[in-house]
TrEMBL record:
Keywords: Membrane, Signal, TPR repeat, Transmembrane, Transmembrane helix
Protein name according to UniProt: PEGA domain-containing protein
Signal peptide: 1-22
UniProt repeat feature TPR, residue ranges: 32-65
Coiled-coil annotated spans: none
Transmembrane segments: 284-305, 345-365
InterPro entries: PEGA, TPR-like_helical_dom_sf, TPR_rpt
Annotated SUPFAM superfamilies: TPR-like
Cited PANTHER family: S-LAYER-LIKE PROTEIN
Species annotation: Polyangium fumosum
Length: 411
């Protein structure tokens, strides 16, 4: 019968006392926060005796009323573990201290209800259970480490790694190693005092991801829009873990863009292949066309000079003496040829100048286009922004004695 009653009491406590505890906002110092986080962790694991020790030490450092409520909750739950009535009495005492200290607390209703439930349970305990105090146990010496990484482990004095929990140790100084996958390990020397719990918060620093990139020399590398250097890299890039947008860009080439999901401490090898842009290829074609026109213009200029020289000789002869009809026809042919070749050379050189200017604009303004980093909630990448050279127009120009090109550009 007694066992059945104890089981009912334990069940009532397990279901009646909710997991409501003081929040981190109730703790205003780093040292007290380490004890509070230890208490919350031990409470969640069902180690309520350790939770009581941690919450009590946190309260000694910060005296926040919410911690009194957390201590009461832990004592109440501990009764379900060991069946000792003094845990219930301690819970009632801390509930009352909470009500007296925090007159406007949000958990006052829960504290009142808790006191009534526990007093009803205590009134139903057999008299011999109420009057017989349980022997007090000497408190153990413990070290507890907290950190922001849930799956971190601790190793004390070189022992095998263990999950984060309050660990019994001997009094004195101990070397504690805290480590977790993807984080730099941290070592601390922690002094453990006789019969006390020593809690310490050890933040872990994230390892970066290491990215090696091969690609054209001189190409610029950006990650999420931030410049990271130019190829070839002297060492792998160290990039914060997560989803990152990486660009490799070089003038005259289409930008290489990729999205990487980088893990902490992981290495990635990336080969960036860049293809020439149509604009750069067009500029090369125009440069070739300009060179051809220059060559043609020079040839026609020489032919014009040669025809002019021959026409000059016949004209001087015509002034001194009568020339034959054949020589007169030759003179007219050379004179007309000089004019035609001269006009042709002028037109060819004008076209060459137009091609050259257009090729220069296309070549100079062929800058890389970088796609802005995509937000996590974006469904697709944003379209690339416009280049500095927005529009080029080329129009043939033909008139009396004139052949050439006119062009315009809009930026």
């Amino acid at each position: 019968m007694k066992r059945f009653f104890a089981a009912l009491v334990a069940l009532a406590l397990a279901t009646g006392a909710g997991p409501s505890l003081a929040g981190p906002a109730d703790v205003d110092s780093p040292e007290a926060r380490a004890y509070f986080e230890t208490g919350a962790r031990e409470y969640e694991k069902g180690n309520y005796a350790n939770a009581v020790r941690a919450f009590e030490q946190a309260y000694a450092l910060t005296t926040r009323p919410g911690l009194l409520f957390s201590i009461a909750q832990a004592y109440r739950k501990q009764y379900g573990n060991d069946g000792k009535p003094q845990n219930l009495r301690q819970a009632v005492d801390y509930y009352r201290r909470y009500l007296a200290t925090d007159t406007t607390g949000k958990r006052r209703g829960e504290a009142d209800a808790g006191i009534k439930d526990i007093e009803e349970i205590l009134s139903r305990l057999p008299p011999e259970v109420q009057s017989t105090p349980a022997p007090e146990e000497a408190p153990s010496t413990q070290i507890s480490i907290t950190t922001q990484v849930e799956d971190a482990t601790i190793s004390i004095d070189g022992a095998a790694p263990r999950p984060l929990e309050a660990i019994d140790v001997t009094p004195g100084k101990h070397k504690v190693l805290v480590q977790a996958p993807g984080y730099f390990p941290e070592e601390r020397e922690v002094p453990a005092k006789q019969g006390q719990m020593t809690a310490l918060d050890v933040p872990l620093r994230e390892m970066p991801a290491y990215v090696s990139i091969t690609g054209p020399a001189g190409a610029s590398v950006t990650v999420d829009g931030l410049p990271k250097g130019a190829l070839p890299l002297q060492a792998p890039l160290q990039i914060e873990a997560g989803v990152r947008t990486l660009h490799v860009s070089l003038n005259g080439f289409n930008t290489f863009t990729t999205e990487l999901d980088l893990g902490r401490g992981k290495s990635e090898d990336l080969k960036a292949t860049l293809d020439r842009t149509r604009q750069r290829m067009t500029s090369f074609v125009l440069i070739g066309g300009a060179a051809t026109c220059v060559a043609g213009g020079i040839v026609m200029a020489f032919l014009a000079a040669d025809s002019g020289e021959e026409a000059k000789k016949l004209n001087e002869k015509r002034k001194k003496e009568t020339i034959s009809d054949t020589e007169l026809d030759d003179y007219l042919t050379y004179r007309d040829g000089q004019t035609a070749f001269r006009n042709g050379a002028t037109a060819a050189l004008n076209v060459a100048a137009g091609f050259g200017a257009l090729a220069f604009l296309l070549y100079y303004f062929d800058e890389p286009r970088l796609t802005p980093p995509r937000k996590k909630d974006d469904k697709k990448p944003q379209s690339p922004g416009p280049s500095r050279l927005r529009e080029i127009a080329v129009v043939p120009a033909v008139g009396p004695g004139l052949v050439g090109l006119s062009f315009g550009a809009r930026f």
